[in-house]
C-alpha cells in the first residue's frame, strides 16, 4: 500500500496523536458516568498513569488503542509497511511498558482492567456493564485482579 501523504505530513499526523482523552476513552467515561460510576483521571502518581482510577475499589482501567498497544488478533493492530523495524521496536517498547505498569500496580495492591478500543467501538454498553460488575465484585473469592475487556 502506498501512503497518500508525504513522510513529513505523516510524521506530523502521528506526532499529533495524543495519549489521553481519546475518543474511546471519552466514550467509556461518559457511559460509566451515566451509570453513576465515579472515577479520577490519569493519576500520574500511579504506574502507567491509568486512564481511569476508581479509588473506592482500589482499581484502575487502561483504555488501550489496538494499534499502539498491539491487541492480539485484532484487525486494528496493523503494522505500517514503511520502516517495519522502527515500528516493531516502538510497539515492543509500548507492550513492555504496559506489562511493567500492570505488574507494578498489582504489587501495590491495585486491580487492573484493560479495555480495548475495538471493544468500545463495537459493544460499549456491554463493556461498561462488565467493568461495573468487575468493580462491584471485588470481595468475591476467586475474583480476578486483572481483567481484559477486549475482542470487538
UniProtKB/TrEMBL annotation:
GO biological process, one term: mismatch repair
Key words of the record: DNA damage, DNA repair, Endonuclease, Hydrolase, Nuclease
Enzyme Commission number: 3.1.-.-
Pfam family, one: Vsr
Transmembrane segments: none
GO MF annotation list: endonuclease activity; hydrolase activity
Family, as annotated: Belongs to the vsr family.
Its job: May nick specific sequences that contain T:G mispairs resulting from m5C-deamination.
Protein's UniProt name: Very short patch repair endonuclease
Organism in which the protein naturally occurs: Frigidibacter albus
Gene coding for it: vsr
